[in-house]
Amino acid sequence: MKNNVSIVISAAGMGTRLGLGCTKALVEIEGKTLIERQLEILKDYDDIRVVVGYQAEKVIEVVNSVRKDVMFVFNHDYRNTGTGASFWLGAQHAREYVVALDGDLLVNPDDLIKAIECDGCCIGGSTPSTDNPWTMPTKVIRGVENVVGFSKEEGEYEWTGLAKVQTDSLQPGRGHVFQMIEPLLPIPMIFIRTKEIDTVDDYERAVQWVRNGYED
Question: What is residue 118's DSSP assignment?
């Protein structure tokens, strides 16, 4: 496992679209919350930062029940900012590379490790599956498929919220993580299998996906 990586899990949002009354990091699938599942996959990494805001005490309690060495970062303005603000706060004084991971993202465990362990920077892309997604136009550069933009109109792959970038290349952001990454493009793309949970239908599909061993 690489020791030059810090991982920032953004878990400050309110999850209002899902309508379950909790931040999406605390949504349970088969008896485990999303953030518990993420932390289990990340058990061999020693610099994990969880950005909290809405229901911070509950998130901290659940995280501490899994491991005691996680750093907590507070986004006190979580009602008015996006994951970009949380990522920027969590990335302060990070190692050479920092990984952005949304707290509501369910990722195939092998694919998450593959992204973290990639050489250099990478962006996780998936088959478009959500309503009105942000997609990523790509271009093959020196034999490697690279993300060259983010769009609502073109692009074969969906932006997942998972990315690994050099820490010292980041500039402050308050909106989306991809808006912070856009000036750094092109960046190699890695295909990952994910389920994002925004609606009740998404949740039911995610439950079945986990039951199937993270396979469709």
Answer: S
